[in-house]
Structure prediction request, 681 residues.
Amino acid sequence: MDKTVKILKKPITSTIIAILCGFAVAAIVLGVTGYNPGAAFGALFSGIFGRPKYISNVIIKATPLILTALSVAFAYKVGLFNIGSEGQYIVGALAANMVGYLCNFPPILEIPLVIVVGMAAGALWGGIVGLLKAKFGIHEVLTSIMFNWIALYLSNLVVQSSTFHQPNTTATYPVNPSSYTMLLPNWKTSDAGIAALSRNKLLKEVLLKTDVNFGFLVAIAAAIFVWFLLYRSSQGYELRAVGLNRDAAEFSGISVNKNVILTMLIAGALSGLAAALTITGTNPHRISILSAFENNGFNGLSVAFIAGSSPIGCIFAGLLFGGLLYGGQSIQANIGAPSEIINIMIGTIVFFVALTKVVPALATKLEKRGMRHAK
Amino acid sequence: MLNNISLLIGITLMYSAPLIFGALAGVISERSGVVNLGIEGMMTIGAFVGAAVGYFSGNAWIGFLAAGLAGGAFALLHAVASVTFKADQTISGIALNLIGPGLALFLCRLCFSGATMSQPVPHKLPKILGGAQKNTVAQNLNLDSTVVLAFIAMLVMWFVLYRTKWGLRIRSVGEHPAAADTMGISVDRTRYICVIISGMLAGLGGASMTLAVIQQFTPTAISGHGFIALAAVIFGKWTPQGAYGACLLFGFAEALSVFLGLKNVPIPTEVLAMLPYILSIVVLILFVGRSVAPKADGMPYEKGTR
Prediction:
């Protein structure tokens, strides 16, 4: 009994229960609409784990999600709701694309340049939101939403400008290969490289058929950095103090305004990093005209919540989310059920994550009942 | 000139009607102390149900009503989570934004043989002036019935919130639930009702998009209008009339960009499209300043706490 209670009280248990509920609801929806849930989930799992290529693609898909989730989770810890990660991602991708195309330095300079520019653009976009909040008290949700849209149209404006628009496409010119962050990018295009990789089945599949890149490592490093910043630095103590009680923080001499701006700068930089790594790390290394949001930032919201705003949790939640998004395509391909079932599933998981407080409360009840019986 | 002005007013009102319903949905829920970030999801459900029922029944009004009911039913999820289970309302709202469009597209594919777009409804919701003459002031001002309904909804909500006992109860539950509880007001029941009404309004907002502005459900039918409505709630300082004004401003900026586009003004369409959002921020900086939410907004109420 004690053991059950203890397990139930761990946060991870609630998260796992939420994930199971997501699968259960998806099974019910599939069943009611005449599809076989077993077959659907089978397709999902083989779409994630079936081949090394799939696993590699899931990791690639998860990388930007982990970073935008970190952006949201970090701001959330400081009491800010960064719904603007979407826009920060868009301007980050835009700036990285522009610089990566216009400049062509050796990789050792080019790669950091493109990534730093992407981060700076995201930081600027987030920073303005923070500044408007600090200076004029305008709610960050409000300005974030507006800035998402401005970013979308700004990006489209640049994509269609004569300097960047590649004729006969709906996209810009790709960035120069000197900024590529894939593993062994040159091997893919040279005959000798292809021949060398083809000798090993696993290498051939993962390296040649997917864009394995260094982004995932950067995402993990970023998660550790955010964790360290929040929990092991004095700046992080200030930030969390602002998040927990703004007035108390102000009273104890912490500048709330400064921390709000700083937070939005960092959050924006994280979203911009997500975008820059996608531009440098995956095909087609460019941006296209957007008719609607691509949800790179909005999905980060869900990932951050599934992770309970824990920086390290974002890595795992991002992988889960990436897996569902990537593997989910197999459901439609294999059994014909609308792939939107994945969105319903993810939504349900997030919904039950919102309810997570119920599980520990239940555990406390169980505990009390147990003690009564013991008497 | 007169024609241009009336055209501008006409487009403004047309674009703002769905937003107004969405914003009123936010106002009623947040006034009772439940943050509703799920308006986008609720509007998408309404947009789909409105278009689908409108198509299959052949009557836009039946579609419109069905959208309201569907939105209310969908909002029940949010009510259960945030009132009964004291869940994190922010997360629950975001969850609804994922489930809503997911469910709407899922059902759309089932109903319309795999397409993510519904068939066009046979008749849009009627216009108030019926068959007015083309290119006249009357035609430009020939408003959708949803424009009138949105205005009435705002008046009703203003009256209920500030002139009735029930409105006083809603506001007290949103400001100080413990005090309201002491006075014998059921906090939980009040919040349940408000969240469900919120869902109904959001559903109607979605349907006014698909049954009056465009004529079918598409994956981008709502595309962010729920979030803009949310912005209008904050912008309008959590009052029905304020939110209404904020939506009109936004609709006007949207109309202005359409209008300038129609008149072939040599400004890139993307810059015109940015206009509403930039204008909103400028107005915010100039006129609004700090806005204060209802005190208990977003806080689950536990009996016995102060």
Q: What stands out?
A: The CA atoms of residues 46 and 302 of chain B lie 32 Å apart. The longest helix of chain B spans residues 2-31.
